[in-house]
Design the sequence.
């Protein structure tokens, strides 16, 4: 698959129709792999907060991916990284993560952390390629078998 040129990344409202479509698709993927009690995603309303930056990747007018950064004070938490299956392999996830990390650095966050599923092999591989390492549970997360916790110092 060829890269989308240009691929535009911008902070947008998680309340938009495009965001709702991406979030619903992300939920469907998660629920295909895990029971609801093992999914720790923020819903659209929870993403619409002043301490959360919601990034959308666009290939032309089409929203193809999203990711959110929650400012937790000393660190940022990554939520909702998702790229539409029809747009994968074009660099959208890398571009979203680069924009998120740039935003985190500008906010003087020392590191970014995430919780992901142990069965989401492509996501885990991406995070590792981007320099994220496995760590213990953080915040309010419990250490359950389905979760992997990762972080990257900025």
Sequence:
């Amino acid at each position: 698959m060829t890269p989308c040129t240009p691929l535009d990344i911008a902070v947008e409202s998680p309340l938009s129709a495009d965001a709702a479509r991406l979030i619903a698709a992300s939920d469907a993927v998660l629920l295909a792999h895990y029971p609801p009690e093992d999914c720790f995603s923020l819903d659209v309303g929870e993403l619409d907060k002043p301490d959360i930056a919601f990034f959308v990747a666009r290939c032309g007018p089409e929203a193809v991916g999203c990711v959110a950064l929650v400012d937790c004070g000393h660190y940022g938490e990554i939520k909702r990284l998702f790229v539409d299956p029809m747009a994968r392999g074009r660099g959208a996830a890398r571009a979203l993560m680069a924009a998120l990390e740039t935003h985190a650095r500008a906010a003087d966050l020392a590191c970014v952390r995430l919780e992901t599923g142990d069965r989401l092999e492509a996501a885990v591989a991406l995070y590792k390629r981007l320099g994220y390492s496995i760590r213990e549970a953080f915040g309010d997360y419990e250490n359950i078998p389905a979760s992997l916790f990762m972080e990257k110092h900025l």
The chain has four helices and seven strands. The longest helix spans residues 17-33. The chain has a mean pLDDT of 91.
